[in-house]
Amino acid sequence: MPQYAFRCDCTATIPVGIAQAGSSVRCEQCSKLMEVPGTKVLRTLPILEDVVAGAVPKAGFAQRFLPALLLAIAALSLTTAGVLAKERWFSPIEFGHTEEEFFAAFRDDALQDPPARVWDHWKYLVESGLPVHQPPDYFVINEYFERRKPWLIGSSILGALSLGMFLVLTFGQSKGRLGSTGPSA
Ligand SMILES: [Zn+2]
Q1: pTM for the structure as a whole
Q2: CA 180 to ligand 1 center in whole angstroms
Q3: From ligand 1's centre to the CA of 26, what distance in Å?
Q4: CA–CA dist 34, 40 (Å, integer)
Q5: Degrees to nearest 5, angle at CA 124 with 132 and 96
Q6: What is the pLDDT along the chain (185 residues), one digit of tens a residue?
């Protein structure tokens, strides 16, 4: 016969069988007399497997380890995302330009230059050697951030998910404790 995990006000788990529905059980932890709910409610409680009647089951390894693991993943991911985001948004480079837009702006600037400056610039390009001309900083930095974008998005999502799961596990459990204010004798 399955044993259901009935929770005492003191958060201890009292294993109860269907036969005990509607009766009272004394908590081994705090000695409080708890009224066992009826069969309908009892069947909605989690089932305890291989529990010796009367024993107080200890919180499972996963139950205690999982929130800590989730919190660690959340902290690590959100820190990574934070560092990447800070690096990106505090960069002096304006993002979102396509190559065409960049060169259009470059050309507009050049058109406003006096002819002498354009000539100087052209001379500089020829002297420095067109084939070895480096791409503008914009593309170098932009490419650097483009390559890190999946990491930024990925770690943000992973961090948010783990933090959410951690909160659900922690907050959900404490809510269950607060909600189990059954009648006492
Ligand atoms: Zn108790």
Answers
A1: 0.43
A2: 11
A3: 8
A4: 17
A5: 65
A6: 788 999 999 989 999 998 999 999 999 999 999 999 999 999 888 888 654 544 555 666 667 788 889 999 999 999 999 998 888 887 766 666 666 777 777 778 777 878 888 788 788 877 876 655 556 677 777 778 888 889 999 999 999 999 999 998 887 765 555 544 445 44
